[in-house]
Amino acid sequence: MDKIFIRELALRCIIGIYPEERREKQDIVINVEMHADLRKAGRSDDLADTVDYKAIKKSILALVEKSSFQLIESLAESIADIALGDEKVQQVVVTIDKPGALRFAKSSAVEITRNK
Protein backbone atom coordinates (compact mmCIF):
# COMPACT_ATOMS: atom_id res chain seq x y z
CA MET A 1 0.00 0.00 0.00
CA ASP A 2 1.22 3.48 -0.85
CA LYS A 3 1.62 6.20 1.78
CA ILE A 4 0.98 9.90 2.13
CA PHE A 5 2.52 11.72 5.08
CA ILE A 6 1.77 14.84 7.06
CA ARG A 7 4.99 15.31 9.01
CA GLU A 8 5.77 17.38 12.07
CA LEU A 9 2.58 19.41 12.27
CA ALA A 10 3.49 21.65 15.22
CA LEU A 11 0.46 22.95 17.11
CA ARG A 12 -0.56 24.19 20.54
CA CYS A 13 -3.53 23.02 22.57
CA ILE A 14 -4.86 22.29 26.02
CA ILE A 15 -3.81 18.70 26.71
CA GLY A 16 -3.09 16.85 29.92
CA ILE A 17 -4.60 15.72 33.19
CA TYR A 18 -2.86 18.00 35.68
CA PRO A 19 -4.21 21.45 36.63
CA GLU A 20 -1.11 23.22 35.30
CA GLU A 21 -1.62 21.47 31.93
CA ARG A 22 -5.24 22.65 31.77
CA ARG A 23 -4.40 26.35 32.16
CA GLU A 24 -2.20 27.07 29.16
CA LYS A 25 -1.76 25.61 25.71
CA GLN A 26 1.13 23.22 25.24
CA ASP A 27 3.18 22.26 22.21
CA ILE A 28 2.40 19.03 20.40
CA VAL A 29 3.86 17.57 17.22
CA ILE A 30 1.62 15.43 15.04
CA ASN A 31 2.65 12.96 12.33
CA VAL A 32 0.05 11.26 10.16
CA GLU A 33 0.84 8.37 7.79
CA MET A 34 -2.06 7.49 5.49
CA HIS A 35 -2.10 4.28 3.47
CA ALA A 36 -3.97 4.37 0.17
CA ASP A 37 -3.73 3.04 -3.36
CA LEU A 38 -2.19 5.96 -5.27
CA ARG A 39 -1.76 4.28 -8.67
CA LYS A 40 -4.76 6.01 -10.25
CA ALA A 41 -3.54 9.43 -9.07
CA GLY A 42 -0.04 8.67 -10.33
CA ARG A 43 -1.43 7.99 -13.79
CA SER A 44 -4.07 10.73 -13.97
CA ASP A 45 -2.28 13.59 -12.17
CA ASP A 46 -5.73 14.54 -10.81
CA LEU A 47 -6.42 15.60 -7.21
CA ALA A 48 -9.77 13.78 -7.32
CA ASP A 49 -7.86 10.49 -7.57
CA THR A 50 -5.76 10.94 -4.45
CA VAL A 51 -6.05 11.80 -0.77
CA ASP A 52 -6.60 15.52 -0.26
CA TYR A 53 -4.06 15.91 2.54
CA LYS A 54 -4.57 19.68 2.68
CA ALA A 55 -8.24 19.14 3.59
CA ILE A 56 -7.24 16.55 6.19
CA LYS A 57 -4.69 18.96 7.66
CA LYS A 58 -7.33 21.69 7.90
CA SER A 59 -9.68 19.31 9.72
CA ILE A 60 -6.90 18.35 12.13
CA LEU A 61 -6.16 22.05 12.78
CA ALA A 62 -9.84 22.74 13.51
CA LEU A 63 -9.99 19.76 15.90
CA VAL A 64 -6.82 20.71 17.77
CA GLU A 65 -7.64 24.42 18.04
CA LYS A 66 -10.92 23.73 19.88
CA SER A 67 -9.78 20.63 21.75
CA SER A 68 -9.15 20.14 25.43
CA PHE A 69 -8.32 16.44 25.59
CA GLN A 70 -6.80 15.02 28.73
CA LEU A 71 -4.91 12.25 26.93
CA ILE A 72 -2.85 12.36 23.77
CA GLU A 73 -4.30 8.90 23.09
CA SER A 74 -7.77 10.46 22.74
CA LEU A 75 -6.48 13.19 20.45
CA ALA A 76 -4.71 10.58 18.31
CA GLU A 77 -7.93 8.57 18.01
CA SER A 78 -9.85 11.63 16.81
CA ILE A 79 -7.14 12.44 14.25
CA ALA A 80 -7.25 8.84 13.00
CA ASP A 81 -11.03 9.19 12.55
CA ILE A 82 -10.50 12.31 10.43
CA ALA A 83 -8.00 10.57 8.14
CA LEU A 84 -10.14 7.44 7.80
CA GLY A 85 -13.05 9.68 6.86
CA ASP A 86 -11.44 9.98 3.43
CA GLU A 87 -12.75 7.07 1.37
CA LYS A 88 -9.32 6.44 -0.16
CA VAL A 89 -7.47 6.04 3.17
CA GLN A 90 -7.43 2.38 4.23
CA GLN A 91 -5.06 2.63 7.18
CA VAL A 92 -3.64 5.46 9.24
CA VAL A 93 -0.76 5.72 11.69
CA VAL A 94 -0.92 8.75 13.99
CA THR A 95 1.97 9.76 16.23
CA ILE A 96 1.69 12.62 18.70
CA ASP A 97 4.70 13.93 20.59
CA LYS A 98 4.33 16.12 23.64
CA PRO A 99 7.71 17.89 23.98
CA GLY A 100 8.85 18.68 27.48
CA ALA A 101 6.17 16.54 29.15
CA LEU A 102 8.76 14.48 31.00
CA ARG A 103 11.77 15.92 32.74
CA PHE A 104 15.05 14.79 31.11
CA ALA A 105 13.19 13.49 28.01
CA LYS A 106 12.85 15.27 24.68
CA SER A 107 9.18 14.28 24.56
CA SER A 108 6.60 11.71 25.46
CA ALA A 109 4.63 10.25 22.58
CA VAL A 110 1.90 7.89 21.52
CA GLU A 111 1.46 6.09 18.20
CA ILE A 112 -1.71 4.36 17.08
CA THR A 113 -2.58 2.41 13.94
CA ARG A 114 -6.18 2.17 12.73
CA ASN A 115 -7.72 0.42 9.73
CA LYS A 116 -11.04 0.63 7.95
Give structural attributes:
116 residues; alpha+beta; GTP Cyclohydrolase I, domain 2; four-stranded antiparallel beta sheet; 4 helices; 4 strands
Q: Average pLDDT across residues?
A: 96
H and E string: EHEHHHEE
Low-confidence residue ranges: none
Shape: elongated
Strand content: 35-45%
Q: Please give the radius of gyration in angstroms.
A: 15 Å
Which structural category do the helix and sheet elements fall into? alpha+beta
Can you identify the CATH class?
A: Alpha Beta
Distance between the termini: 14 Å
How many strands? Answer: 4
Fraction of helical residues: 25-40%
Remind me, CATH topology?
Answer: GTP Cyclohydrolase I, domain 2
Give me the CATH superfamily. GTP cyclohydrolase I, C-terminal domain/NADPH-dependent 7-cyano-7-deazaguanine reductase, N-terminal domain
Q: Please state how the strands of the largest beta sheet are arranged side by side.
A: 1-2-3-4
In CATH terms, what is the architecture?
Answer: 2-Layer Sandwich
> How many strands, what sense, and barrel or not for the largest sheet?
4 strands, antiparallel
| Helical segment count | 4
Number of domains: 1
Provide an overview of this structure.
It is a single chain. The mean pLDDT is 96. The longest helix has 14 residues, at 53-66. The chain is built from four helices and four strands, in the order E-H-E-H-H-H-E-E. A hairpin with a 7-residue loop joins strand 3 and strand 4. Helix 3 runs antiparallel to helix 4 (72-84). The protein has helices at residues 19-23, 39-44, 53-66, 72-84, and strands at residues 2-13, 26-36, 91-99, 107-115. A four-stranded antiparallel beta sheet has the order 1-2-3-4, with helices on one face. The chain has a single domain, classed as GTP Cyclohydrolase I, domain 2.
